[in-house]
Amino acid sequence: MSKFSKLNLQTSDDARKIAKKRLPKMAFDYFDGAALTEYGEFLGRQAIKEIRLAPKVLARGANREINHTILGHKTDIPFGIAPMGMCNLSHPSADKIIAKAGAYFNTPVCFSTMASTAMEDTIKLTDGNGWFQLYVYDDLKAGFNMAERASKAGYETLILTVDVPDLGRRPRELRQNFKVPWWPSISQFIDCAIHPSWSISMLMSGGSPAPANFKNLPPFRRDRPRAGADWDFLKKLRDSWKGNLIVKGVLDPKDAKKIKELGIDAIYVSGHGARQLDSLPAPIIQLPKIRKAVGKNYPLLFDTGVRNGEDVVKAYASGADFVMLGRPILYALGADGERGLKTIINYISKEIQVTLAQIGLAKISEVNPTNLIT
Ligand SMILES: Cc1cc2nc3c(=O)[nH]c(=O)nc-3n(C[C@H](O)[C@H](O)[C@H](O)COP(=O)(O)O)c2cc1C
What we know:
Layout lengths: L11 H11 L2 H8 L6 H12 L17 E3 L2 E3 L3 E3 L12 H11 L4 E4 L6 H5 L6 E5 L5 H14 L3 E5 L9 H5 L10 H8 L2 H9 L26 H10 L3 E7 L2 H9 L4 E4 L13 H12 L5 E3 L6 H9 L4 E4 L1 H32 L16
Parallel strand pairs: 3-10, 4-5, 5-6, 6-7, 7-8, 8-9, 9-10
Antiparallel strand pairs: 1-2
Helix pairs in contact: 1-14, 4-14, 11-12, 13-14
The chain binds flavin mononucleotide.
C-alpha cells in the first residue's frame, strides 16, 4: 500500500474536513465534540498556537533526528497515539490499523478500556508498542481484574485515566443521541443512508462497533460512574502492576507531585481534549508548572490540542518527554483509513524535522525551554 493518501491531506485540519463529509454526523460529532460550550477545546489548541518558537540560523547539520526514548522504550518518532474509545466508528478496522501503525512507526499506541477490539487482539499487531489504558468504574475489583488481564495479554505499560469521575456532558453527542453500544434511530438511519461508503464498510465488517473488553462482565453502561479510583486505589495498583504505570489526566502541579511520590513511573498531562471540563486551564499552560513541581528528570507525557509538528516541538519545549496525538488520528482514519493515518503521521514527523532545523537543533531530545520566546 502507498505510504501517502491520494486525497490532498496536508494537515490534520484537511483530514478533519474530509472526515466530516465522509462520516455520519453522529460519529463525527462523537469524535469532534467536547464538553458544554467547547470553548475549553478551542482554548487548548489556541494556547499552543499562541506559543512562539525562537528561530536560530547558521546551525549546521542536514540530519534532524526525531527518534526518542520514553520509559526505556526506543521510538522512531517523538509522538504516539493517545487512548481513544470506539475508534472503529472512524473506520471499521481503526483499532487494528492503529496497532499496525505502532509497529510501522515503532512508537507507543495506547488502547482504551472502551476500545471496540479486544485488547488481546490488538497487542499482537503492535510489535511490542502496545500500551493499555484503564478506566476504573465503581467496582474496584473489576478494575484490578482488567489490569491483570492486560498484563496477561502482554501489555507492559498501563495508563490509568483519572479525569473521568463522571462522563462529561457533550451537547453534540447528546443532540445526536449517541449511545454505546449503538443502534440507529430513524434520523440516524437517514444519516447513515446519506453516508453510504461508511455505512457499507461498517455493515460488511459485522455492523456497529461495540466495547469489546467487557465480554463475560456485567452489561456495559457508558454513563456508569468512573469514580472508583482514589489515592488508596492508586497505591494498591502501584503495588500490583509490575510494569510501567502512568497516570493520565493530571493538570494540577500539587496532584502531580503527590503522584510522583507514590512511585508512579510517569504523569500524562492531559485535558482529555476538553471532553470532560469546558472551563479547564489550557493543558499546555499547565505543563511547565507541572514540570517545575516534579523536577527535571521525571517523565511527563502530554496531549490535548496538538495538531502539527510545530505543536509537538512546543510541547517538548514546555516540558514534555513525549507527546500523544488524539483527534488528528481519528480525523485521518475517517478521511482515508490506513493511508490517511500514515500520511498524517509522516507529515507531522516531517514538520518536526523542519521545525528543528528552524530552531537550530539536530535532535528532538535537545529541545528545551530556551527554544521558546517568553
Ligand atoms: C473520541 C475520543 C475518545 C476518547 N476516549 C478516551 C478513552 O477511552 N480513554 C482516555 O484516557 N482518553 C480518551 N480520550 C482522550 C484522548 O486520550 C486525549 O486525551 C484527547 O483526545 C486529547 O485531545 P485532542 O484530541 O483534542 O488533542 C478520547 C478522546 C476522543 C477524541
